[in-house]
Amino acid sequence: xxxxxxxxxxxxxxPLANIDTDQIIPKQFLKTVDRGGLAKGLFYDLxxxxxxxxxxxxxxxxxxxxxAGVLVAGDNFGCGSSREHAPWALMDFGIRCVISTSFADxxxxxxxxxxxxxxxxxxxxxxxxxxxxxxxxxxxxxDLESQTVVSPSGAVFxxxxxxxxxxxxxxxxxxxxxTLQVAQAIDVYEMKRALAQPWLxxx
Length: 203
Known about the structure:
Low-confidence stretches: none
CATH class of the largest domain: Alpha Beta
Helix content: 25-40%
CATH topology of the largest domain: Aconitase, domain 4
Distance between the termini: 35 Å
Order of helices and strands: EHHEHEHEHEEEHHH
Number of domains: 2
């Protein structure tokens, strides 16, 4: 997992509440366990018409928002099913941070396990970011170390984050990476167990 320290990126506003994981990545794109290539399915029903053509009025299809790395969205982002493909698709599209007033619990957990930073801000702060992002070429700074979001106008918003999750994000540690940090201790334990209980090795 890539570490997240500081992100300077274009912000794209998506002022919709209760965006569920089926909207983020529809079910027909869940047949793969490969994290790459999922960008094509991100917000598919919102981005494309029935013929597969881009809808020019959808925010992520507008040229001024191409390459955005931060998404600011409405309440309860990521509700619905527990599909891990949702953060995968966002990251494959180039989004490294989602800002909202609230996130569904499972989606929130999946974000932290995959290096996508979910940031919770107050409703008035989210509204201000959305307003400032309407021009399309505005940059924001998300600094995990200082736990701040700096808006295009320079306003500074502070966010809370669990200390352990923050440390893992800063160091790029998912569950596997965290386990590998104590790989030597695990090896020692297994050797001791093999000597003390050799019959278990034949089980």
